[in-house]
Amino acid sequence: MRRNLFVFLSLLALAGCATGPSLSSRMAAYIGADMPTLVQHFGVPDKQITVNGVQYVAYEQWHQEITPGGWYGPYGGPFYGGFYPAYYGGGLASQVITYSCETTFVLKEGKVSSFTLRGNDCN
């Protein structure tokens, strides 16, 4: 019984470390696809232009995260309260961090021939 529990917990821990395919490999699956397939899977493009018969179609994804600010004490540790916050120095402002990724597909003769990924969240 203990051995079965150990094996189960080990497999459960390993499953938590498993990662799926990268964004690049997922987008590579669309090479050879046509425009209706892109619209079906991603929706209406955010940007679209045709230059010399080559069509460029871009999809943007982004999200924001907010890091909390706070008061910090004289030794660098967090300050959680008390009567004299001015003694402990200034407060730290919250930060808003924007993560984005733009995927641009290149369509030649109506089929995806390549793609590019641009942004700080294209992993």
Number of helices: 3
Biggest sheet: strand arrangement: 1-2-5-6
The fraction of residues in strands falls at 35-45%
**SSE string:** HHHEEEEEE
Shape: elongated
The chain-level mean pLDDT equals 81
Rounded Rg? 24 Å
Distance between termini? 41 Å
How does the helix and strand content classify structurally?
A: alpha+beta
Largest sheet descriptor: 4 strands, antiparallel
Low-confidence stretches: none
- For the secondary structure, the number of strands is 6
Percent of residues in helices:
10-25%
Key traits:
123 residues, 3 helices, single chain, 4-stranded antiparallel β-sheet, alpha+beta, two-stranded antiparallel ribbon, 24% helix
What does this structure look like?
The protein is of the alpha+beta class and 123 residues long. It has helices spanning 2-17, 23-28, 35-42; strands spanning 47-51, 54-67, 70-71, 91-92, 95-108, 111-118. The strands form two sheets. It has a four-stranded antiparallel β-sheet with strand order 1-2-5-6. Strands 3-4 form a two-stranded antiparallel ribbon. A hairpin with a 2-residue loop joins strand 5 and strand 6 (111-118). The model has no long low-confidence stretch (mean pLDDT 81).
